[in-house]
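Pilot study result, target chain (421 residues):
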Amino acid sequence: MHAMALNPALEVYLLDPDGRVIGHALDQPGPLADRVDLSVVRPLAGRAQVPPALPLLGDDPRRPGARNVVSVEGLSHEGRMSGYLYVVLLGQTQQAVAAAVAQSGAWRELLLAALAVTAGASLLLVLVMRTLTRPLRRLTDEVRAFHADAAADAGAGETPDDEVDALREATRAMQQRIAHQLRQLQHSDRLRRELVSNISHDLHTPLANVQGYVETLLLAGDGLDAAARRQHLETALRHLRRLHRRIADLFELSKLEAGGVAPRLEPFRLGELLQDVVQDGQLAARERGVTLSLAASAELHASVRADIGLIERVLQNLVDNALTHTPRGGAVTLAVERDGPGALRVAVIDSGSGIAREHLPHIFERYWRADDAPASPGHGASAGLGLAIVKRILDLHGSPVRVDSDPARGTRFEFSLSQAA
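Predicted structure:
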C-alpha cells in the first residue's frame, strides 16, 4: 500500500509459492486473475546465475491473458519459501495516462497532418486560381486604367479594389463613354453634312452670280453701253472678292483647328490697333447706315502682349458681324476697360437685333445660324466662319470670348488680353 501511494503507477500483489493471488492493495481491484505464471519471473526471484533479460514481461493480474513489465521478490520464512511479492510496474493508472497521452499525441499528429494537407491544398488552389485568373486580372488591370481615365474626365470617385466590382464599374463607364461618343459622332456627322451644304452654298452663289454677269456681257456684246458694262463688271468683281474671302476664311479656320498657327506674342498699343480697325470699317459702316466709333477711355494708351495680326483679325470679324446684324441708324462701338490687375478687356458693342439666349452656346460653331434668324442682305442664310475664327484665335491666346445679348438692347462681345509690362 505504501509503495503504491508513493508511486501510483505500481500495482503490488502477494502471491503464494504456486503463484495464486492471495493479496493486493488496489483501491478498485476489478476483475483479477486467480493465478500468475511464475515460470517467467521465478529466475529473477531465485537470484539465478544468469539473470533474465530485462524488461521482464509477466502476467498482468488485472488483465488476464495480457503481459506487462513486472518485478518479483521471493518471501521466505524460517528458510522456507512462503510466497512472492509481485509488482506490476505499468499499472492500469499508468496505462490510462499513457493511453491518454498517446491518444492526445495521435490527435495532435492528426491535426498537424490535417493542417499540412489544408495548407498544401490552399497553396495548390491559389496557384491554380492565379493561373486560371491571370487573363481576368490582366483584363481587370486594363479596364481599371480605362476606368481611371474615365473617372478623371468625369470627376468621379476612386475605382473599387475588388476586381469584379472594378470590372463592372469600368464596363458601365465604358458603356456611357461609348454612348456619348456615338452621340458626338452623330452630331459631328450632322455638322459635317451641314458644313458641306453651307460651303457649297457660299461658294456656289458668288460663282453663279459671276457666271451670270459674264454670260450677260458675252451675249449682249456691244448692245450694252459703257455704264452698264462697267456695272456688270463691278458686280462680278464684288462677288469674286466675296468668294475669295470665303475661301480664305476656310483655309484660315482649317489651319487654326489643325494647330498650324502659333501666336507671336509682342507688346503693342491697343488703342492704335482699335483706331485702325475703326478707320478700316468706316466705309462698310456708311454703306449700311451704321455709326462705327471708338469709346473714349484712359486705357487706350495701355499696351498689351499678344499677336497683333491675329487680334486685328478678331476685331475685324467682330466688327463685320456687328455691322451685318445692326439695322440702319444703329451704332457699333469699340471699348477698352480695365479687367482686374494686369489685364484689359476689349468689347465690341452693337445696337442690333440681339441673339436669343438659347442660341448663345452655338454662335461660335462653323456656319451655325438660327432657324428663325432673317438672312442679312448680301450675306445669304449662313452666319459664315467669322465667329468660329474669333474663338479659335482667342483660344490660342488663352482668353475666352464672352457674349451678352438682349434682343431689345443689342449684343456685346468681349475678351481680355494681358497687359504688357
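One observation from the pilot: The chain has a mean pLDDT of 80. A full batch analysis is planned for the follow-on phase.
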